[in-house]
Specification:
- By secondary structure, this protein is mainly alpha-helical.
- It contains 21 helices and no strands.
- The longest helix has 24 residues, at about 1-25.
Length: about 375
């Protein structure tokens, strides 16, 4: 009896390790997916999703929410499937061939684990097993970079890309160059990777809402609040207004603009997602001018608004960024904006403007 109990425990531990490996393999992809679809504990949201025939999205969101913190998601999903495996083991307890009583439940549960991990991350079985091809590897790298960028882990991005240089993928270049701009390195390292035009800084072809979301992040980094808000709003509309990542951007930009009523609306929605309660509580305290001014990040971003009032990009992005750089002079934002501006001038062949920038900002 004692040996049988030990065997069952060993079997469960091995299963847990394998299930955890499967979910950990795609945890970055699942964390990335959670940014676009999480679960809101709101009756109206749930019932509306059901009536709209979006049950699959609702179920996906429920499980994806735990991957906001990847370790939580991996442990929870592994335990869930261990519980399922235990139920199957009990169901097969009367099978006379004892080995099959373990093998069949394990095989069924393992198959379901791989199917679930593949479905949630939209990857193939081979990726979950660590055997994905070149395209899927490139996708995983981009999603890793995107997750780090969301957390403003600029050093993490540089470390990840250090082993991949030179980086030819334009979307990856966009994130890498964002990290270098934030670290004050883009001016010196612009040509470390194949770099032909401004697409290396921000892609011109907005092929999907996910690219629009990336552009929102890039413009936010540049200090161009109007474009950051525009692309976040448009991308979130395409995602049925349920992206927590874009809601965070819309909350920040509306606070920066002093549109506190709009920010409150977004905060109410986002606070219904359990992993964002603390975040919403923090930004819910910044709904007045004095608090914004005192906040290091939003205070600097508000300075970016001190530019000539006109249509966004009316005279070109470079003119907008030059005004932002001047309006934020003496702050980190100015250094970051100048890094972008230096790159754009060189890639566009604006030699006089580039030389003037060098002189004015002492690059």
């Amino acid at each position: 009896m004692k040996k049988k109990v030990l065997l069952v425990i060993l079997f469960i531990l091995i299963s847990f390790a394998l299930f955890s490996f499967a979910f950990w393999r795609v945890s970055d992809m699942l964390c990335y997916a959670e940014g676009w679809n999480t679960f809101y504990y709101n009756e109206h949201y749930i019932m509306d999703s059901i009536r709209s025939g979006m049950m699959t999205s609702l179920i996906e969101g429920f499980f994806l929410q735990f991957f906001h913190k990847p370790l939580h998601g991996v442990i929870l999903m592994s335990l869930l499937f261990i519980a399922l495996e235990a139920i199957l083991l009990v169901s097969f307890r009367k099978i006379k061939v004892k080995l099959l009583g373990y093998v069949i439940p394990f095989a069924i549960t393992t198959f379901l684990v791989i199917c679930t991990a593949s479905s949630l991350s939209k990857s193939s079985f081979l990726t979950v097993l660590g055997l994905g091809g070149a395209n899927e590897t490139a996708t995983m790298v981009y999603e890793q970079l995107s997750c780090k960028e969301r957390d403003m882990d600029w050093d993490g991005i540089l470390e990840l890309e250090a082993s991949r240089m030179p980086e030819a993928n334009l979307l990856n270049q966009n994130i890498l160059n964002m990290a270098m701009a934030e670290k004050g390195m883009l001016h010196e390292h612009l040509y470390d990777n194949p770099c032909g035009d401004i697409n290396s800084i921000y892609v011109n072809d907005v092929q999907s809402e996910y690219v629009a979301a990336l552009l929102s992040d890039i413009y936010y980094s540049m200090g161009h609040m109007a474009q950051a808000q525009r692309y976040a709003f448009e991308a979130n509309e395409k995602m049925d207004n349920k992206s927590p990542r874009l809601l965070q951007r819309l909350i920040k930009t509306n606070i920066i603009y002093g549109q506190y009523g709009v920010a409150r609306k977004y905060l109410r929605k986002l606070s219904d997602a359990i992993y964002y309660e603390e975040w919403c509580e923090h930004y819910g305290k910044l709904l007045d001018d004095a608090s914004v001014k005192a906040d290091k990040e939003l205070g600097e971003k508000r300075l970016c608004l001190n530019i000539k009032n006109k249509f966004s990009g009316f005279n070109g992005l470079d003119k907008d960024l030059l005004m932002v750089a001047r309006a934020t002079k003496g702050h980190k934002q100015s250094r970051t904006t100048v890094q972008y501006l230096s790159a754009l001038y060189r890639l566009a062949g604006y030699k006089e403007e580039y030389q003037s920038l060098l002189k004015e900002f002492e690059l």
